[in-house]
Write a structure and sequence with these properties.
Elements (H helix, E strand, L loop, with lengths): L13 H13 L4 E6 L5 H14 L4 E5 L25 H13 L5 E6 L6 H12 L3 E8 L6 H7 L6 E4 L5 H12 L5 H11 L3 H13 L3 E4 L2 E4 L8 H12 L6 H10 L1 E3 H7 L2 H9 L3 E6 L2 E6 L2 H9 L3 H17 L7 H13 L4 H13 L3 H8 L9 H13 L3 H14 L3 H18 L4 H13 L3 H16 L4 H8 L11 H17 L3 H18 L12 H10 L3 H15 L5 H17 L3 H18 L5 H14 L3 H6 L1 H6 L12 H9 L3 H18 L2 H13 L3 H14 L3 H15 L2 H14 L2 H18 L2 H15 L22 H11 L4 H8 L3 H15 L4 H16 L1
Parallel strand pairs: 1-4, 1-5, 2-3, 3-4
Antiparallel strand pairs: 6-7, 8-10, 9-10
Helix pairs in contact: 1-2, 4-5, 7-8, 9-13, 10-13, 10-14, 14-15, 15-16, 16-17, 17-18, 18-19, 18-20, 19-20, 20-21, 20-22, 21-22, 22-23, 22-24, 23-24, 24-25, 24-26, 25-26, 26-27, 26-28, 27-28, 28-29, 28-30, 29-30, 30-33, 33-34, 34-35, 35-36, 35-37, 36-37, 37-38, 38-39, 39-40, 40-43, 41-43, 41-44, ...
């Protein structure tokens, strides 16, 4: 922890440092200005510049401009002026300073932080020293700040001063920085939370991480840094930084800032009622507030989410009360014309007085649910008194609680609604929500199915009863009995009926997953794409927690179609869209599919992050439905990268979790690979055989194929070859067929077929399997004594394995020695030959005999496993690409 409080790495800034070092060495640099908003690392970068100058044995000095120093002429730079210089006569003084500094061998390097705050005298003196070549000026300036004409002249000197504009860090830069500072992988959820809260501001990010670690909001769990659901603490230093920034605004803007902190967003007309346009213009120019267009409205918001937190903490409770009622009255005076007006007014009145009209609260909660803001819906609905609830509002509360993972509390609310339901409609909406909640709460689908069956028996509406029957089929399909469930879901149309859209959306995802389970992958993909399109078109807040739930079955089908990279990208985009919504149920399911895609791609470190996130979500919300799958995957990933201690530590939780029946062949992958990492291959295969038998009995063909493939990878391909061929004939998924061909090639030890499998699997994105196929081919050719092909296959396997994040498997460990490296002379000849030059041309360039060149080429070809200059060019091109990446 202590080491983190020092300087953080300059992520994404190395090119600037390299350019400065080169120009300083060449003597070409006269000045360098670094501009950008507050907190993006301007000072840090320029201090690195100053350090490079000092390392080059240049004299260096630093000054910091400020508004206070600007009140005194030369106040900011007085300490760097020679003591003997009299500045009462500016002309003679400027000349004397130049003469005093010009006696040095090299120009003095002067760093001035916050150049835009310089007084005119300091700016004029620095300009003269710069023009005379006496100094090299490095400075920082905040964008958007007003300066005097003299300072403007210093900052805008054309080519005399190089300019670098810094902005907030990108997601990739934030991720790189976090992993380097924390020295370990960071969950996607932690990355998103820190990125969105800091807005990519390096200074804010640093303080947030330090505060989160100190308060144990950010912790290392199962080898992955993950973040809690609690708001990130604002450190005193960060609070002071923000408060100082806000304090620079005019006092007359304070009412607007307080309203923005409390209300989050105001229309332009409401904002100008609280502050004049000059204040608003200053807030926008200084980066404190933002003005944007949303549809037909112009909206004013605070520029950074942390600004509101700091302002609100400094606002009294009475003032917040007044602000809430004032804004509620203002919006109501317009007649609640816009869709979200009722939500805003209800929230403001609730915050101010603790209550609001029951009808307004119900209306606002429905709006919040339709926006997937389940937490706000819960806050609004729990403010309704028990005798003022309707069945619909109770069900809505149950759904919101369910979607946020509060399953026990949701069951209590929905069970009460069930007893109070009078007509068929009330019984139907209560039963569909209650059975869904029970299904997510218990790995055994029986209680949920029982609720559906009981409700069906009590309904007189046969259409509603049929919808409940489809719900039963959905729960059976993804609850361990896909064959039986799909038989019921055969009555589910491919297009949604308008009077039962919620049920169709809830059941179609189960049907598409079930079709993939049993090997009807092409139909599953087409149906999943259609369901995703329909759900996205109707919006959010229906029976499902989030439209992203339709992504999970689509990603599953894409993986089995052999489009693993496409599935990965789909999951990543969906995860990014889900972050703004507090939907742990949806997040957990998506985390599993994301992890599964990374695992199949041969990326255990990336998969581990997703599995770990799923495990944390499970533990936080007691979401047991897919807990065993997440724990198994996390165990497998840790074992595959050699972290046996972490994998072993997961066994108690794994054994305590219940099986959900879905993907049974994959529930045992973690235990199997832990045995394999310990060298217990026979035990690993026994675990997988049991899992494969279970999958076969329940009709999970794809899951069975995965277990059987792993048996082959762990040393016994002949035992599973025949069964995998049978599964391949029953499934239309390309990945299952590729698995079957791979296992057959392993069993027959056919190197040519293994290399063909390697190319096919690599094209599908299954790079670890592809690497194993190439490694197995190398071993087969080694037994046949074909050295050249051994070298070629080994090189291919090594290149693929390098993209698998350190994964090691028994097959890869048998590849023997790595490809022998080229000598410097061989590298030189290889590069020339790759460009198409003849041996004679190479001999003339290197002053060698043609025979010597040819001998070198033969050794090069042997080492790289190639036969011609064309093959050599491709090999060298790949090596260059790998090195750059």
């Amino acid at each position: 922890m202590q080491s983190w409080e020092g300087r953080w790495p300059l992520v994404g800034r190395q090119s600037h440092l390299d350019s400065f070092r080169k120009e300083l060495s060449d003597g070409r640099i006269r000045g360098w200005l670094v501009c950008g908003p507050a907190g993006v690392g301007k000072t840090r970068l320029t201090e690195e510049f100053l350090g490079l100058a000092a390392a080059a044995e240049r004299r260096t000095v630093k000054a910091v401009a400020s508004r206070a120093a600007a009140q005194v002429p030369l106040g900011a730079i007085a300490h760097i002026l020679p003591a003997s210089v009299d500045m009462t006569d500016p002309v003679q003084g400027f000349r004397a300073v130049a003469e005093a500094l010009s006696g040095l061998p090299q120009p003095t390097v002067v760093l001035v932080d916050d150049l835009h705050l310089l007084d005119n005298s300091s700016a004029a003196l620095l300009g003269q020293l710069l023009d005379s070549g006496t100094i090299v000026l490095i400075g920082t300036a905040r964008t958007g700040e007003r300066t005097s004409d003299v300072v403007d002249a210093l900052l805008q000197r054309g080519d005399d001063i190089r300019r670098t504009d810094l902005d907030h860090m990108s997601r990739d830069q934030v991720e790189e920085l976090l992993q380097r500072v924390l020295e370990g992988p960071v969950s996607r959820r932690a990355l998103h939370t820190l990125l969105s809260t800091s807005d990519g501001n390096p200074l804010f990010l640093r303080e947030l991480v330090l505060g989160a670690v100190a308060q144990e909001n950010l912790t290392l769990t199962d080898g992955v840094w993950d973040i809690s659901e609690e708001p990130l603490p604002v450190t005193p230093h960060l609070k002071d930084l923000i408060a100082g920034r806000i304090a620079s605004s005019r006092p007359s803007a304070r009412p607007l800032l307080e309203s923005l902190a409390f209300c989050r967003a105001l229309s332009l007309s409401d904002a100008t009622a609280l502050a004049d346009r000059a204040d608003l213009e200053y807030l926008e120019r200084s980066g404190i507030a933002e003005i944007s267009v949303q549809g037909a409205r112009v909206i004013v918001t605070l520029a950074h989410p942390l600004y509101g937190e700091v302002i609100a903490a400094d606002t009294s409770a009475l003032r917040r009360y007044d602000l809430a009622l004032l804004q509620a009255d203002r919006v109501e005076s317009h007649g609640l014309r816009r869709r979200d007006d009722a939500l805003h007014v209800a929230s403001w009145r609730l915050a101010a007085t603790g209550t609001a009209a029951p009808g307004l609260l119900r209306q606002a909660a429905a709006i919040a649910m339709n926006s997937n803001d389940n937490e706000q819906a819960i806050e609004l609905l729990t403010a309704i008194k028990p005798d003022q609830h309707t069945i619909e509002s109770r069900v809505l509360l149950g759904r919101a609680l369910m979607h946020t993972g509060q399953l026990e509390r949701a069951e209590a609310v929905l069970a009460e609604a069930d007893t109070l339901a009078g007509n068929d409609f009330e019984k139907f909406i209560t039963a569909t929500t209650r059975c869904t909640n029970l299904f997510w709460a218990d790995p055994d689908p029986a209680p949920a199915v029982a609720v559906c069956a009981a409700a069906r028996a009590a309904l007189s509406d046969q259409t509603a009863a049929q919808q409940l029957r489809l719900m039963e089929g959905a729960m059976l399909t993804v609850g361990g009995s896909p064959v039986e469930g799909l038989r019921i879901l055969a009555d589910l149309p491919d297009e949604p009926p308008q009077d039962a859209l919620d049920v169709w959306l809830a059941t179609i995802s189960a049907k598409t997953s079930g079709l993939t389970f049993v090997g009807e992958v092409e139909r599953a993909r087409a149906l999943a794409e259609r369901a995703k399109s329909i759900h996205e078109s109707v919006g959010e807040g229906k029976l499902l927690p989030h439209p992203v739930m339709q992504v999970a079955p689509l990603a599953l089908a894409l993986m089995e179609m052999g489009e693993i990279d496409q599935a990965r990208e789909l999951c990543l985009r969906a995860a990014d869209g889900l972050r703004a919504s507090h939907s742990p149920v949806a997040r957990q399911f998506l985390a599993f599919e994301s992890a599964r895609a990374e695992w199949l791609a041969g990326r255990p470190v990336s998969a581990r992050r997703w599995y770990a996130e799923g495990v944390v979500t499970t533990r936080t919300y007691r979401l047991d439905r897919v807990a065993r799958l997440h724990l198994s995957g996390l165990m497998a990933c840790a074992a595959l990268v050699g972290d046996i201690d972490t994998a072993t530590s997961l066994i108690p939780d794994y054994e305590a979790s219940g099986s959900i029946g879905a993907l049974p062949g994959e529930e045992s992958v973690g235990v199997a690979w832990l045995h394999a990492a310990r060298g217990e291959l026979s035990r690993a295969r026994d675990v997988l055989r049991t899992a494969a038998d279970w999958a076969r009995q329940s009709g999970h063909l794809v899951s069975e194929a995965i277990a059987l493939t792993d048996i082959a990878r762990l040393g016994d391909p002949k035992a599973v070859q025949e069964r995998l061929a049978e599964i391949s004939a029953q499934c239309d998924g390309a990945l299952t067929s590729a698995r079957a061909r791979f296992v057959t090639a392993l069993a027959t030890e056919d190197p040519q077929r293994l290399m063909a499998c390697s190319e096919e699997l690599e094209h599908m994105g299954a790079r670890l399997l592809a690497a194993e196929a190439a490694a197995a081919a190398a071993n087969a050719w080694r037994r046949r004594g074909d050295t050249r092909k051994v070298t070629s296959a080994t090189g291919h396997a090594s290149r693929l394995a390098d993209r698998c994040e350190g994964a090691r498997t028994p097959i890869l460990s048998t590849t023997g020695e790595a490809v022998e490296p080229l000598t410097k002379r061989e590298q030189e000849i290889a590069l020339l030959a790759a460009t198409g030059k003849t041996s004679k041309a190479i001999s003339q360039l290197l002053t060698l005999s043609v025979r010597t060149v040819d001998n070198h080429l033969q050794r090069i070809y042997l080492k790289l496993g190639v036969r011609s200059r064309a093959d050599l060019a491709l090999a060298l091109k790949y090596e260059e690409t790998s090195a750059q990446s």
